[in-house]
Write a structure and sequence with these properties.
Number of strands: 10
CATH architecture of the largest domain: Alpha-Beta Complex
Distance between the termini: 34 Å
Oligomer: single chain
Strand order of the largest sheet: 8-7-6-9
CATH superfamily of the largest domain: paralog of FGE (formylglycine-generating enzyme)
CATH class of the largest domain: Alpha Beta
Largest sheet: 4 strands, mixed
Structural class: alpha+beta
Radius of gyration: 21 Å
Length: 361
């Protein structure tokens, strides 16, 4: 599924995604809406901050940001404290629990007003203004990604996912994938796609040669990982989100498992080659993010986009290396399930909906 290319479809997508975002937290216990009552975690955000940040991001990039005014000074926010409270580039993670916020009612009104402002700006957009249109696409995929983060938050809190018509919020791995797949290798134009919107970390495409390789036809199962890890199947059931995949795997454990079996994790290039050239492989993806052995780094000729947070701050020069994950999960919007998409996390993280598969040495 690609990003909507016309204004009517994009408007509908923005509205639908906001409805889904709000539905995810409709059953949240009332006390958790106050940041000071929400359990502190380095992995997630207080719900009041996260939803307000989604609204802030949309308003900022769709109606305030320009190449000549990257701080949005010329056009003020609808909420006078929004820049100081909800800009993720400026507000430290710990501060999101301790800052003084407007009331829930004010934040909810801002969230709604922000969307209305975005939709009005979209309606006024010249259809041939590709640079501005890309900012609306950025707003949409940003909310797509935060919806998955909201589900991760619910899982961490031990709360059930809400019942949302048309959404199956648990993994459904297809049967019939076993053994390994052999690839002869060859040239790959990595990062290349004809999608309407591309993240800056996917660009520019570059030529690389892939050596022959063998890769698992499916991610590692919960049962196989449990046998290696020395736990019984019941212990791993919660870890696996009631599915057959070895879910919530850290890069550390994935690498250790592969090494213990005389194998290795695939490189990002190998994974992308397989997904771009083999339908059977592609059909076995998309229920859980898959770790690769590749450190998240810029492609040759990289140029940062309007929102640097999807690239530069997490490259190796920033300190702790992040590793690339591919493929998407059951919680990922189909718009973000394509072979070139690059997710990235630090190697100890396992709270995501993530798994792995291995390659021959």
């Amino acid at each position: 599924m690609d990003i909507p290319s016309d204004k009517a479809a994009l408007r509908a997508a923005l509205i639908a995604q906001r409805q889904y975002t709000l539905a995810l937290y409709r059953d949240l216990p009332a006390e958790y809406w106050l940041p000071e009552n929400f359990p502190y975690s380095t992995l997630v955000n207080p719900p009041l901050w996260e939803l307000s940040h989604i609204a802030y991001f949309a308003e900022f990039f769709a109606t305030r940001w320009t190449p000549d005014d990257v701080l949005g000074v010329v056009t003020p926010s609808l909420l006078d404290v929004a820049d100081s409270l909800f800009n993720s580039s400026l507000v430290g993670h710990r501060d999101r629990w301790t800052n003084t916020y407007p009331s829930m009612a004010v934040c909810a009104a801002y969230t709604e007003a922000s969307l209305m402002r975005v939709l009005a700006a979209l309606e006024a957009l010249e259809t041939d203004d590709g640079q501005r249109l890309a900012l609306f696409h950025l707003v949409l995929v940003h909310e797509d990604m935060h919806a998955e983060s909201l589900l991760m938050t619910l899982r961490q809190l031990g709360l059930a996912s809400p019942n949302i018509p048309g959404k199956h919020l648990k993994p459904q791995f297809p049967l019939g994938f076993s053994g390994t797949l052999q690839f002869a290798g060859g040239p790959l134009l990595q990062g290349a796609s004809d999608r309407q919107f591309k993240f800056c970390n996917e660009m520019p495409p570059f030529d690389t040669d892939i050596a022959p390789f063998e890769i698992d036809a499916a991610p590692v199962s919960a049962a196989d990982f449990a046998r290696w890890f020395g736990k019984n199947k019941m212990d791993v059931a919660h870890l696996a989100d009631d599915c057959d995949l070895a879910m919530h795997m850290s890069h550390v454990n994935a690498s250790a498992y592969a090494k213990a079996h005389g194998r290795r994790l695939p490189t990002e290039s190998e994974w992308e080659f397989a997904a771009s050239s083999n339908e059977r492989f592609l059909l076995s993806t998309g229920e859980a993010w898959e770790w690769t052995s590749t450190v998240f780094a810029p492609y040759p000729g990289f140029r940062v986009g309007a929102y640097a947070e999807y690239s530069e701050p997490w490259f190796p020069e920033s300190g702790t290396p992040h590793y690339v994950l591919k493929g998407g999960s059951f919680a990922t919007h189909p718009r973000l399930k394509y072979p070139q998409y690059r997710n990235f996390y630090t190697p100890e993280r396992s709270d995501m909906f993530c798994t792995f598969r291995t390659c021959a040495m």
